[in-house]
Amino acid sequence: MPHTTTPASGPLPRQVADAYVDALVELDPITGTFLGVRESSSKLPDFSPTGQEALAQLARTTLERLTEAEARPGAEHPTEKVCARLLRERLTAELAVHEAGEGLRAVSNLSSPLHHARQAIILTPSETEEDWAAIAQRVRALPAALEGYRAALDAGRKRDLPAGPLQVATVIGQLDEWIGTDRSWFAEFTESGPDALRAELTEAAGVATGALVELRDWFRDVYAPAIEGAPDVVGRERYIRLVRFFSGTDLDADEAYAYGWSEFYRLLAEMETEAERVLPGAKTPWEALAWCDEHGEAVEGVEETRQWLQSLMDEAIDGLDGTHFELAERVRRVESMIAPPGSAAAPYYTQPSLDFSRPGRTWLPTMGETRFPVYDLVSTWYHEGVPGHHLQLAQWAHVADALSRYQTTVGMVSANVEGWALYAERLMDELGFLTTPERRLGYLDAQMMRAIRVIIDIGMHLELEIPADSPFHPGERWTPQLAHEFLASHCSRPAEFVESEIIRYQGMAGQAIGYKLGERIWLQGREAARARHGADFDLKAWHMAALSQGSLGLDDLLSELSAL
């Protein structure tokens, strides 16, 4: 039975955590939409400095309440202690980022208030006329939200806290695409609404499009000239702070950098072996993958690819459920989607609402393509869908009542979930699901990209020296240009993807290393549990216990996984 004691003297840590979620939804209706709170559907947050400070004050107040809760009888229960540890670590990391002014320079090609607002609109329920009326209100709220966003960036500019110029230029390009020439993304999105609300939705789309035009012009004419010459890398102090936010650990940058190089060499050797099976005599693994692009297994057509990815996830669920996982029926449901125009190049996943009225969804950005090589899809969908992000985050939603909503939603630590998803790719290789040399080479290529992320993300932001024994520019200092060249020469992805990735790493410093560093923790935890249980180790039981523990930062994840 879950531990639910509530002493008369006040709430315990899990109740403090869930009270924080309730208060957060009031301030941030985008979070409400991700959680499935219908009352959030018509609103957008206050992105201004005032709105950001309100969120920070909620965190400070919650930490005070948590300190009081930890002193109460019952707080020593393991379920309370784990939740308290996560809540304190997360809110402390978030406050450190806030107090350093990161919210005043939040421009990114993937993750910013602008992108979060559009994603919330996409995920707003749209089944009924009432739902669409709420969408119309939310779309109308975009100008005020973006005005607050501009106010935050302007405050950062005045405090000499500029965003990266490359991020700004990229977002201007994204806004051009969203605005369109003949009709905007908002006009296309609202087109599927009910006829009874046609005039209202059309007017709302026009208002929102006007706000995008105003933001784009402000970026181009005011903000970009003001920050010209600012660095596109963050430096050591900011980097370490951001890694704590994304990973829940204090980074040993030198050790992690060395680990990235060791994984590079290990994976390169494996890729060379597999490439010989794909294209005998290939000079490099990427020559073999280029052959796959032209002559290998592929899916033709955007809708056909969406359906193919759906069948891939359905087959994975059928093959894993009952053998390596034990899945509730609602966890088995996941939908394959095509990402809207103007998205970054990388596929992504959105988690289900807590009540599962909105299922988990994977999203494929097509980048104008209509033919998709299979080697580049299979491992990626094991990562984004099943058994990767979907099984973890849907399982969290499934057990939210037994833990807390905080541990299974807004307390998410990026490196934990990205580490699980990379572990999931490796698990599918271990279990024999990569049935052809092409598919296995594609998996190794995806792993290689994550190892290179560790090298170049740390390398360029800290301007580290490239090792003397490196095959690439030995002895030089990393720059974004060298990072781009290194990734492009060790990656099968097209040029526009590589460019989008480097821009992403510059705009979300410290996030991209969490994949490999998180995977390492998941593997170490599994092996420690296996050693502890010996012949009695049950991988299925371990998987389900691991996926049912909710969020943890990397500092705590290894000990918890090892003890399962």
Automatic annotation (TrEMBL):
InterPro entries: DUF885
Top-level taxon of origin: Bacteria
Protein's name in the database: DUF885 domain-containing protein
Organism field: Streptomyces nigrescens
Lineage of source species: Bacteria, Bacillati, Actinomycetota, Actinomycetes, Kitasatosporales
